């Protein structure tokens, strides 16, 4: 069973987004630069992370999409021309080359695996080396959402408990939601991508259970307005230890939210285009 490896949140002002996530109670990592024209800052949890991403100063080097080659940079650039928000969902992989072949066989993406490596930075400021292979998949019914799996070749250099200590007590990403006018239209793709069985709730929404998390598919009732048309990845949920404490912290810094039971939600209008939800452990 796969788990959520990370999510990619596209923003136009990376440092402003970093400040906002710091106000939410997260430890936000330093800026990293990719050779294909994007820049990011990471928020790491026990086994998942948030990637805040933007187009960098060297946007001219962004490669175009080609047959069998998915351009990560081009997708982020084109997404940001339309909106900010949750652009990509990433699950874990133990063999990205095999997953790429599997996706092609299932008809959900015939792309070459994408390998890259870069320097990382430890909490003490020293350099380390990280490397990844990605395998992409596409839902033809959701062209403004991207999906891929990520194999980490040096996980011991990437995951670090010092990066996982957050003022809000966050431990992991527990859910990602796709908002769609017709949830059923995405069921076959998500089952093929995640390897999880489709399950339905009484309200008609769907979900796919993952290791320690889930993918939700909720019906778009039109309330989000034309600025965020469906289908799009629309929200993510973070596990924290104490919802009341998180509510008090957000009140103190003036971030709007709604609270219902053990679920707290920061609206997309205040959070760079994505609904951010917190739930108690």
Write structural notes for this entry.
With 281 residues, the chain is an alpha+beta fold. The chain folds into two domains: 4-164, 2,3-Dihydroxybiphenyl 1,2-Dioxygenase, domain 1, CATH 3.10.180; 172-280, 2,3-Dihydroxybiphenyl 1,2-Dioxygenase, domain 1, CATH 3.10.180. The chain is built from six helices and 16 strands. The chain has helices at 14-23, 72-82, 96-106, 155-158, 187-194, 243-253; strands spanning 4-10, 32-33, 38-44, 49-55, 85-92, 114-121, 127-137, 146-152, 172-180, 198-200, 206-210, 213-219, 232-240, 258-260, 263-266, 275-280. Strands 2-3-4-1-5-8-7-6 form an eight-stranded mixed beta sheet. An eight-stranded mixed beta sheet has the order 10-11-12-9-13-16-15-14. A hairpin with an 8-residue loop joins β7 and β8 (146-152).
Please write out the topology.
Blueprint: E1 4-10, H1 14-23, E2 32-33, E3 38-44, E4 49-55, H2 72-82, E5 85-92, H3 96-106, E6 114-121, E7 127-137, E8 146-152, H4 155-158, E9 172-180, H5 187-194, E10 198-200, E11 206-210, E12 213-219, E13 232-240, H6 243-253, E14 258-260, E15 263-266, E16 275-280
Parallel strand pairs: 1-4, 5-8, 9-12, 13-16
Antiparallel strand pairs: 1-5, 2-3, 3-4, 6-7, 7-8, 9-13, 10-11, 11-12, 14-15, 15-16
């Amino acid at each position: 069973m796969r788990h959520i490896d990370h999510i990619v949140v596209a923003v136009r002002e990376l440092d402003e987004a970093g400040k906002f996530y710091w106000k939410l109670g997260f430890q936000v990592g330093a800026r990293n630069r990719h050779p294909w024209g994007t820049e990011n800052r990471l928020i790491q949890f026990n086994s998942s992370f948030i990637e805040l991403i933007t187009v960098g100063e060297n946007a001219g080097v962004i490669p175009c999409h080609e047959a069998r080659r998915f351009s990560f940079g081009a997708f982020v650039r084109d997404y940001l021309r339309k909106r900010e928000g949750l652009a990509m969902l990433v699950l874990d992989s133990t063999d990205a080359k095999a997953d790429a072949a599997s996706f092609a066989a299932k008809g959900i993406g015939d792309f070459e695996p994408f390998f890259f490596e870069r320097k990382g930075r430890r909490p003490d400021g020293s350099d380390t080396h990280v490397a990844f292979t990605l395998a992409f998949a596409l839902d033809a019914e959701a062209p403004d959402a991207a999906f891929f799996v990520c194999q980490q070749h040096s996980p011991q250099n990437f995951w670090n408990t010092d990066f996982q200590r957050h003022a809000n007590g966050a431990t992991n990403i527990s859910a990602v939601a796709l908002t769609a006018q017709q949830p059923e239209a995405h069921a076959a793709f998500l089952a093929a991508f995640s390897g999880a069985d489709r399950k339905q709730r009484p309200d008609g929404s769907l979900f796919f259970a993952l290791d320690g998390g889930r993918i939700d598919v909720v019906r778009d009732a039109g309330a989000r307005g034309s600025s965020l048309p469906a289908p799009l990845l629309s929200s993510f949920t973070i596990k924290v230890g104490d919802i009341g404490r998180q509510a008090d912290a957000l009140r103190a810094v003036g971030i709007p939210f709604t609270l219902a039971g053990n679920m707290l939600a920061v609206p997309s209008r205040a959070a760079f285009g994505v609904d951010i939800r917190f739930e108690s452990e």
